[in-house]
Write a structure and sequence with these properties.
The complex is a heterodimer of chains A (320) and B (219).
Chain A (H helix, E strand, L loop, with lengths): L1 H38 L9 H10 L12 H19 L15 H21 L3 H32 L4 H10 L7 H17 L18 H4 L5 H26 L10 H27 L9 H22 L1
Helix pairs in contact in A: 1-3, 1-9, 1-10, 2-9, 3-4, 3-9, 4-5, 5-6, 5-7, 5-11, 7-9, 7-11, 9-10
Chain B lengths: L2 H24 L3 H26 L2 H28 L12 H18 L1 H6 L8 H17 L3 H23 L4 H29 L13
Classes of the chains: A mainly alpha (320), B mainly alpha (219).
Chain lengths: 320, 219
């Protein structure tokens, strides 16, 4: 009876994480746009606008390019599915999510990268010039960000002796001194740059632009419409929310539920929302003062992230 | 000061010093590079102060204050004055481009840590283990000296080397004698003053601070 209750609690908490990244991710997008609009002196759209947009798109007619293959309709589904699976096993609300023994950081990260890659393929699939250009740029950025990401994971896992994400979080709660160790700080800085690059935020990509020559992510999904576009938007929002959740839990892991009691999970949910909203507002605030980097300057930024991650690894080894 | 706070403060200070060294290779704007140098000077002073407070070493505390004034305030201010008069205050074309020099910095960091492993194993104290950070800052400084073209970024490279050596000295011997430290600081100040004179002369004669223009004889 007790084990059944426990299993139900774990499953419920993980399900809550998926719902939270889905709905919360869209609200997060709205919040970031609102903060930016207010700082620019505009009123801005309501915070719930992305949710309404997705609902509106869901009701629209399904339109697909004439010559697209099966990849095109499948890509949004795969994007949402991979982010969903990653959301199940990442410690966001609870430090003991379902499938936690398999929740290696490498698995989580590559699930997310799988979604990005399939969207890039779909961009090529429609056969238009913009889609191809966007995909080629997105894959270039992805390839540059990947070494930095791998080394960052290595740096994060040194102090906990494990690359299992829930284990890292639990070790951080037991010994909070790790957070201000140079290894963790370097790794977090590198991770932040990689998150910005992967989610297509400023200064890597301007999420609000529709100018043909500068857009990266928008160019890839230009051919999507209706329910497909709704899924892509949802998947991207979920990815942003998930990555920011991972980031904040590595800085301030407190408040995360360590048991399966309802009170602990509700507390974990509220604390997570507050933490992610704070970081998102800070990010949005910083974006106002930033211009998009030229595409040929991006290797400098991501090479910097790589060196930071490397410093993280080296200082982690020295501290041993 | 308890031991864990001492160790983490020391670690953060050393990490900040290497980070500033990397930033000087990362950024192109000379102002940003000089700002990184100033932060590095402050971090160096912090490390010296931490060591002094922990070891109850009055001499080292005085040195920390001196380092703060000289390397954190005076030298960066002097260099900033040179930069301000330069119209194109950017490192436009280093001999090795920025991504490649960042990767080289990564290799140098590895080199520093593997080369000084035997030294830091000998030193069992918390400070001794941090010696590789000083070596890394030094090697990055040499790299900046070798590959940058502007007079200002070369002098920054030289100062990085100097800061690295000072860090190793603090960590390994808990501070060199006050008189030696004074001599080294004055040396650096003198170099910066010479730079200022040189920069003024170069700007008068050539109109820029690009050292490549000194490769051939002008009338």
């Amino acid at each position: 009876m007790n084990t059944l209750l426990h299993t139900m609690g774990v499953a419920g908490a993980s399900g809550l994480q998926v719902v939270l990244t889905g709905a919360g991710g869209l609200v997060l997008l709205g919040l970031m746009r609102k903060v930016r609009a207010r700082l620019e002196g505009r009123v801005g759209a309501p915070i719930l606008q992305p949710l309404r947009d997705v609902r509106k798109l869901m009701r629209k007619e399904r339109l697909r390019p004439e010559f697209a293959t099966w990849i095109f309709p499948l890509a949004p589904v795969i994007l949402v599915a991979t982010v969903g699976v990653a959301a199940v096993m990442t410690p966001l609300v609870t430090s003991r999510p379902a499938l936690s023994s398999g929740a290696d950081l490498f698995v989580v990260v590559y699930l997310l990268l799988l979604g990005s890659t399939i969207i890039a393929l779909a961009g090529l699939d429609a056969g238009t010039a913009f889609g191809g250009m966007g995909s080629s740029r997105a894959l270039t950025i992805g390839a540059l960000a990947e070494p930095a990401l791998l080394v960052t994971i290595l740096a994060l896992s040194i102090s906990a002796h494990s690359s299992n994400f829930p284990v890292i979080i639990r070790a951080t709660i037991v010994d909070p001194g790790v957070i201000i160790s140079p290894a963790r700080l370097f790794a977090l800085a590198a991770l932040l740059i990689v998150i910005v690059a992967e989610c297509g935020r400023l200064p890597v990509d301007n999420p609000a632009t529709h100018l043909e020559l500068t857009m990266i992510h928008e160019a890839m999904i230009l051919e999507y419409a209706g329910p497909d576009l709704a899924l892509v938007t949802l998947g991207e929002a979920m990815r942003l929310a998930l990555l920011l959740g991972v980031f904040v839990n590595l800085i301030v892991p407190w408040g995360i539920a360590s048991s399966t009691s309802i009170a602990a999970i509700v507390l974990g949910m509220v604390v997570l929302c507050a933490k992610v909203a704070t970081v998102a507002c800070a990010l949005s605030f910083a974006e106002v003062f930033m211009a998009k980097l030229r595409l040929f300057r991006l290797p400098e930024l991501l090479a910097g992230a790589f060196v930071l991650a490397l410093l993280g690894v080296v200082s982690g080894v020295v501290a041993k | 000061m308890n031991h864990s706070a001492y160790a983490s403060l020391l670690g953060l200070g050393c990490a900040a010093i290497v980070l500033c060294a990397v930033v000087t290779l990362w950024r192109r704007s000379l102002r940003a590079i000089v700002r990184a140098l100033a932060v590095q000077g402050v971090a160096l002073a912090l490390v010296a102060l931490t060591l002094g407070l922990h070891g109850h070493n009055r001499g080292l505390e005085i040195v920390a204050v001196l380092v703060f004034v000289a390397k954190g305030v005076v030298v960066p201010t002097l260099i900033t004055r040179v930069v301000r008069h330069d119209v194109a205050s950017r490192e436009t074309q280093p001999l090795v481009n920025v991504p490649a020099s960042l990767v080289a910095a990564g290799v140098l960091i590895f080199l520093a840590f593997s080369a000084s492993r035997s030294v830091s194993v000998l030193a069992s104290s918390a400070s001794g283990r941090l010696i590789p950070y000083g070596m890394a800052a030094m090697l990055i400084g040499f790299f900046a000296l070798a590959t940058r073209r502007k007079a200002v970024s070369q002098i920054v490279g030289l100062l990085l080397v100097d800061n690295g050596i000072a860090l190793v000295a603090f960590l390994a011997t808990a501070g060199v004698p006050l008189i030696v430290e004074l001599g080294a600081s004055l040396d650096v100040l003198l170099i910066v003053v010479v730079l200022q004179v040189l920069a003024t002369q170069m700007r008068l004669r050539l109109g820029s601070l690009d050292l490549d223009q000194l490769a051939e004889l002008h009338d």
